[in-house]
């Protein structure tokens, strides 16, 4: 048993001291902390005003408030598409290790009950699952915007039911959290899942990985935000006609209202702002720009409606936080993150639309992470952090040591972010993302690795490499390998290649 890439015994001791300090600040009544994990679907850092990166952002006062009162991570990476990121969160393992490198399949032979949707709110952006191969390739934000030279990845992935989900034997953060019998955490997931297939439990997969309760859309996206198929605790799907974002928060609030004094972990995975792009109900919109939009799309571009969907999600986040109340929030770690970059058809500057969701460029992996909790140091940071690190971070904040929870033979890549949350430095000295097809042999079609300054992009399908200086060129406009390299860049290139070669599943 081991955790990859911890630097030294000294840093371990420092981390332990910081963890104890955070626990002391957050548990004045010795109560274990609660966890609220909020996941926005298809959002890179340019989508939020509080990041100061994009110029055309959504109206998000509640997320902005979390940002002001919490810790903002500027160099946080997720994976290029949704299922791989969710798998890293649950397992603490990178895709090459957990086997999920592409959007997961969908359980077959299921009667997905899809009611007739409200015709007053047409789909403006390509539809949900089954809308066609063009949408899945990312033309309006389906499964990801592909690079022009992305090789044969689509052919390698096979049909939707043939894509892998999470391994049936995967060890998850929820299972580890429940090992602490003294804490007795209640756990729930509401909203999008997209990790289930026929082999790992199908409709009951969220419950099998450790959630006491699950409700939501099991597939890549809702069929329509006003008419979609919902699964609750593994039962047969039922048709829903309420606005999907509101339904998710309704279920989350109902579950929390039954918790009493017991500690809880609530995973809230929004479908929004993933396709289908549809105007939300007016009562969820507060800005003049969004309220002026017509449902038929006649007086705005696709990005305006995408922003409106983020705004509606923010409104519902505010409703959830208000329902929880200040007293409970005082002992709750609230985490907001994106699951991958913005789809190419709605991505905005400074990112290149051809290097957005579905790629390992910055526009595909540099997503928001905002954490608010007791004892944390407010402000922003430029420390390296990754979606895989949520595993060790949450377990440490809950009072567990990640390595002590692992079954024999399980290796994780997760590094705790607790030192960063307390104003210190990261224990992670590199960031990593990969994107590969349905085979589970750990060989990635496309991989990226970065240090504080340099980033290497390796496309195995086309046998190409790109090296970027992210300090001087944060949006990857100049491949350093196209010109003469400095001695520093030469050494960094060699170091990154060597590190990348280590990130494989042993034979």
Outline the structure in words:
The chain is of the alpha/beta class and 507 residues long. It folds into two domains: 425 residues, Alkaline Phosphatase, subunit A, CATH 3.40.720; 63 residues, Arylsulfatase, C-terminal domain (2-Layer Sandwich), CATH 3.30.1120. 27% of the residues lie in helices and 16% in strands. The chain is built from 16 helices and 16 strands. The protein has a ten-stranded mixed beta sheet, covered by helices on one side. Strands 13-14-15-16 form a four-stranded antiparallel beta sheet, covered by helices on one side. The chain has a two-stranded parallel ribbon with strand order 1-12. α9 packs parallel to α11. The longest helix has 23 residues.
Summarize the structure.
With 507 residues, the chain is an alpha/beta fold. It folds into 2 domains: 2-426, Alkaline Phosphatase, subunit A, CATH 3.40.720; 445-507, Arylsulfatase, C-terminal domain. The protein has helices at 9-26, 61-69, 82-91, 95-98, 133-136, 153-157, 173-177, 205-208, 244-257, 288-291, 302-324, 326-329, 362-365, 390-397, 418-421, 487-502; strands spanning 2-3, 34-40, 71-77, 186-191, 213-216, 228-232, 238-240, 264-269, 332-338, 369-372, 379-386, 411-412, 431-435, 446-450, 454-459, 464-469.
Just name the CATH architecture of the largest domain.
3-Layer(aba) Sandwich
Strand content: 15-25%
Helix proportion range: 25-40%
CATH homologous superfamily classification of the largest domain: Alkaline Phosphatase, subunit A
Gyration radius, rounded? 21 Å
> What's the tally of helices?
16
Report the structural category. alpha/beta
Please indicate the count of domains: 2
**Low-confidence region ranges:** 1-5, 22-28, 127-161
CATH level 3 topology of the largest domain: Alkaline Phosphatase, subunit A
CATH class of the largest domain: Alpha Beta
Query: Strands of the largest sheet, in order across it?
Result: 7-6-5-4-8-2-9-10-3-11
How can the largest sheet be summarized? 10 strands, mixed
């Amino acid at each position: 048993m081991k955790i990859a890439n911890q630097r030294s015994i000294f840093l371990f001791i420092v981390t332990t001291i910081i963890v104890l300090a955070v626990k002391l600040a957050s548990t004045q009544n010795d109560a274990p902390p609660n966890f609220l994990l909020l996941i926005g679907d298809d959002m890179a850092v340019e989508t939020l005003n509080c990041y100061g990166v994009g110029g055309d952002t959504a109206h998000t006062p509640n997320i902005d408030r979390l940002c002001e009162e919490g810790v903002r991570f500027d160099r946080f990476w997720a994976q290029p598409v949704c299922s791989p990121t969710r798998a890293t969160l649950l397992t603490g393992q990178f895709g090459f290790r957990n086997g999920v490198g592409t959007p997961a399949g969908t359980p077959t032979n299921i009667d997905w009950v899809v009611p007739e949707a409200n015709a007053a709110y047409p789909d403006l952006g390509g539809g949900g699952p089954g809308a066609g191969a063009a949408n899945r390739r990312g033309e309006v934000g389906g499964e990801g915007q592909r690079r022009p030279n992305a090789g044969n990845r689509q052919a390698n992935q096979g049909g939707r039911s043939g894509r892998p989900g999470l391994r049936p034997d995967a060890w998850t953060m929820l299972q580890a959290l429940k090992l602490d019998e003294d804490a007795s955490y209640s756990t729930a997931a509401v909203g999008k899942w997209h990790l289930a297939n026929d082999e790992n439990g199908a409709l009951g997969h969220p419950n099998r990985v450790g959630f006491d309760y699950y409700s939501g859309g099991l597939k890549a996206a809702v069929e329509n935000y006003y008419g979609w198929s919902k699964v609750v605790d593994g039962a047969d799907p039922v048709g829903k006609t309420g606005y999907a974002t509101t339904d998710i928060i309704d279920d989350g609030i109902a579950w929390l209202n039954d918790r009493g004094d017991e500690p809880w972990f609530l995973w809230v995975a929004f479908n929004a702002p993933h396709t289908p792009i549809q105007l939300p109900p007016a009562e969820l919109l507060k800005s003049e720009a969004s309220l002026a939009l017509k449902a038929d799309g006649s007086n705005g571009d696709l990005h305006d409606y995408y922003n409106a969907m983020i705004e509606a999600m923010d409104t519902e986040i505010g409703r959830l936080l208000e329902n929880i109340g200040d007293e409970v929030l005082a002992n709750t770690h609230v985490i907001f993150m994106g699951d991958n970059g913005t789809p190419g058809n709605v991505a905005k500057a400074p990112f290149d639309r051809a290097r957005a969701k579905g790629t390992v460029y910055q526009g595909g992996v540099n997503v928001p992470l905002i954490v608010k909790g007791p004892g944390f140091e407010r402000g922003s940071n430029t420390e390296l952090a990754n979606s895989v690190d949520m595993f060790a971070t949450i377990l440490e904040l809950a009072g567990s040591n990640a390595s002590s929870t692992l079954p024999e033979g399980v290796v994780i890549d997760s590094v705790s972010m607790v030192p960063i949350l307390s104003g210190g430095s990261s224990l992670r000295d590199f960031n990593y993302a990969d994107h590969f097809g349905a085979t589970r042999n750990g060989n990635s079609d496309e991989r990226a690795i970065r240090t504080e300054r340099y980033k290497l992009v390796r496309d195995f399908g086309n046998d190409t490499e790109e090296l970027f200086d992210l300090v001087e060129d944060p949006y990857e406009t100049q491949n350093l390998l196209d010109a003469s390299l400095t001695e520093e860049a030469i050494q960094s290139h060699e170091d990154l290649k060597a590190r990348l070669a280590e990130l494989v599943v042993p034979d």
